[in-house]
Specification:
The protein is mostly beta strands. It has a single domain, classed as Alpha-Beta Plaits (2-Layer Sandwich), CATH 3.30.70.20. It is 10% helix and 28% strand. It contains 2 helices and 7 strands; from the N terminus they run E-E-E-H-E-E-E-H-E. The chain has a 3-stranded antiparallel beta sheet, with no helix packed on it. The termini are close together. The structure holds iron/sulfur cluster (2 copies). One iron/sulfur cluster binds next to helix 1. The site of one iron/sulfur cluster has 14 residues, from helix 1.
């Protein structure tokens, strides 16, 4: 049987982190707010080409239509949900994990 991953805080309270699960790139306007509040380096802003391909922004040779945020390092997420709280377009879904 599995349990939901939770931690006991120093004050004795139990806390269940909910980790970043999905980011809706169709809704994302590339504003960068979530990137600025994430302390863990999980997120990365990229360009989207006319054909829908994701392009690194440091590639000067590629042209992009718009920018979107992506989950680049999911494994570094600590489940604080700051990204979801600041996002004006409600792009994020978060979920607890089973252990
Ligand atoms: S939940 Fe917290 S750590 Fe995870 S991606 Fe969002 S802001 Fe970063
Ligand atoms: S805050 Fe929301 S709309 Fe802005 S870049 Fe992040 S995911 Fe996209």
């Amino acid at each position: 049987m599995s349990d939901t991953f939770s931690v006991k805080l120093p004050g004795g309270e139990m806390w269940t982190p909910t980790f970043v699960s999905t980011l809706d790139e169709q809704k994302c306007i590339g504003c960068g707010r979530c990137f600025r509040v994430c302390s863990r380096g999980v997120l990365q802003l990229v360009g989207v080409s006319e054909g829908g391909d994701l392009i690194p922004l440091d590639d000067d040779d590629e042209e992009y239509e718009k920018k979107v945020m992506t989950i680049a390092h999911r494994e570094l997420c600590i489940g604080c949900t700051a990204c979801a709280q600041i996002c004006p377009k409600k792009c994020y879904r978060h979920a607890a994990v089973q252990v």
